[in-house]
Structures
1.
Amino acid sequence: MNPIGLGMRGLIRLYQLLLSPVLPASCRFTPSCSAYAMQAIEEHGPLGGSWLGVKRICRCHPWNDGGHDPVPPANTENGGPFRPSRLPE
């Protein structure tokens, strides 16, 4: 993983260790939004993973029922849905 992805995952881990235990439990999804963001960054890279994490956090509100919401798999054939496509040769 590149340094940006590691830094982002480190910040999320700090949140999980320092802030999350102090805040009231209100997560509507499994896995939690922070765990989802960590998995998304690992699977889709820093840009795509953070975009998926932001979209997930935006869905976390009282009018959403929540439930099981796994990270979508990366499309490895063309580099994934959030990776820039290769230029034609």
2.
Amino acid sequence: MASVWKRLQRVGKHASKFQFVASYQELMVECTKKWQPDKLVVVWTRRSRRKSSKSHSWQPGIKNPYRGVVVWPVPENVEITVTLFKDPHAEEFEDKDWTFVIENESPSGRRKALATSSINMKQYASPMPTQTDVKLKFKPLSKKVVSATLQFSLSCIFLREGKATDEDMQSLASLMSMKQADIGNLDDFEEENEEDEENRFNQEEKAAKITELISKLNFLDEGDQEQTLTSSNPFEEADDPVNLKPVQRP
């Protein structure tokens, strides 16, 4: 019901799809004197979507051994696709926050969140390709962390735009005289549904292949049955009688 209400709220709004790429450069984490992280991971997330960096070793500083860094000699790129919505009469897009989470990865592979920070993607959206240097301060989630910052460059590329309507809203959009040639489905713009759509497409493709395979097997089975029915029966009289010569006894 909540998703239907959300779609109703988006009727008549414009939707723009952007590609963002975060290039991680340096991560600083200051810890308490009783603890040091094992390996650190940066997770870029929103709801159920997670984009994780590789795990990297934390290197303590020389002057302050409790203040260490992760430095990327070559920036590590993490890519997301974001859909921003806007009222036709508004100048700015609606807010949409994505969150960065610093996680500690133990030797066994178990992760625990250490600090978090969010950015509003509308502030970095642009119709022209842009690249912005960002230094993000984090809020500690653990008593073991004193402070943390992340330096990265954030690139933005505009992909496409359309109306914020999906398949369920097509008829309503038509009644409101909104259905135009350039109207895009919400599934093309709403990034939360993109993974579900991709999975559904893969499932439909697999189902089609299975159906095709079953049809071929049925066809082959029918051919075998016909061949069995038309094959010669040793107990059946032949259509053309065979002239047998009587055996002459001496």
3.
Amino acid sequence: MSTAQTVTGQSPLARLVQSWQAISPRERRLVLMAATVVGIGIVLTTLDWSRNERIRLGRAVPRAEAQLEQVQESATEITRLRAQPAPQRPAATALLDMAQASAKSRGLALSIQSGGEGLHVKGQAGFDDLIAWLAAVQHDQGLRVLRMELQQQGVQASIDAVLALPAAP
């Protein structure tokens, strides 16, 4: 006996055909109408789902493409930066000279000395000028504020700070 046949010896398809022929024509029409309604419901549900997904993807794809472009730009930038040689760390005396020259070029009367923790900065100048100078030495020479006491008196400010030397690359 074949595995497709049931215990009674008939295949499921043969039993279905036999059951279909056993029902009256009126019942056949009702079964066909019910199957048509169910089929139309399935088709409409599938079309509605498909339309909703198309709308969702229409919004999601441009966002994903923009994110992909950003990632590709970042990857290009990372590759470019990795190809560059690591910046050389200037000696502490060179940083001291650069910081003093930078302060002098901005007209700031600051006392800058090299110490164990980094560069010690003391003096008075315009508050905005001090902040701009600190930003410039951080950007240009890699010096960062380790400790700072800043007292503003009108447009003038007195500073007592320690600027840390940049870390080794």
4.
Amino acid sequence: MTAVRMATSDINELTPNKDEAETLMINKMAPILYSMDASSPANAVRMFADIIGLDLELKHIDLTVAEQKLPEFLKINPIGSIPALKDGDFIVSDSHVIMKYLLLKYAAHQVESLYPSNLQTRALVDQAMYFNTGVYFIKLKGVTIPSLFGDCTETPEKSKKDINDCYKQTVLITQPACYINKMAPILYSMDASPPANAVRMFADIIGLDLELKQLDITVAEHKSPEYLKINPIGSIPALKDGDFVVSDSHVIMKYLLSKYAANQVESLYPSDLQTRALVDQAMYFNTGVYFIRLKEVTIPSLFGECTETPEKSKKDINDCYKDLAVKKKEVQPPDLPRNKGRVPPVTSAEVQTALRRSRNRKVIGAD
């Protein structure tokens, strides 16, 4: 779950004071959502913010004492409705509008999967949202508002029927659920593969789910006819995104960044010519120098051809680490989010376990 910072319900604190403002600056000015726990529309925004990985600052408005009609709140939202969103100097209300705004501003890389550009598909999404506004929520309010204010203690049978009918209609209008793209890119991988693990960690940094397909190179699954149809080179990792297939971890990471995290390109792969050249230099150093020396140790170990690392190989790898330290100083990496929970981090212990498991496998698919 993303962190949601709760604020007091005191109406005097609707406008952040100096200390709160400084805190918001530290937190990079999280958008403020004026909300109430019992508000379905406000909770929809909160859930949506969690889906796209966005922190919100919550300001609680108590409808039971008409805080939404106080002058302080009406300055923020003249309509006097919740939820309302304040993002810097910009204010907007209505949960559907708020969600679209947050998607376009803070999760541009997820627009195509959540609010597709295809005209007919987007129309179906809009249809569902307007059905919620114009039909379902009106009938729901007929029950929730009286219950909230203590005007009724039992739901009338007609209201129950109206709401149940709405649920049935909701099922019907959301049948074309194919417009929500749930097809995560497929990564053909192996637990003990540093290049594959690099892609997994990178996907975690940009907040992208990957479907993992494990290949066991100790029994040559990467050379099977089925896999060679996907990647004729027979290497791992390889990525299948719809009908598109690409291999090499560095290429895969740049592709995923450009397609699924366009809003992070400037921080991770800057457009400045010299800075980007230094990033490329580090990646090609990994491909052409470091990984070659690492493979001289890992491949024989993986196949049980050696039980001890030669001293020369140790020296070669240590020299690479020294070179990497120098190159790290040339490119100052940005502060990156770690372990968002989408893809678990790979530990050295897990790699060792994978190595031992691979050595013990005799046939494809054996445990």
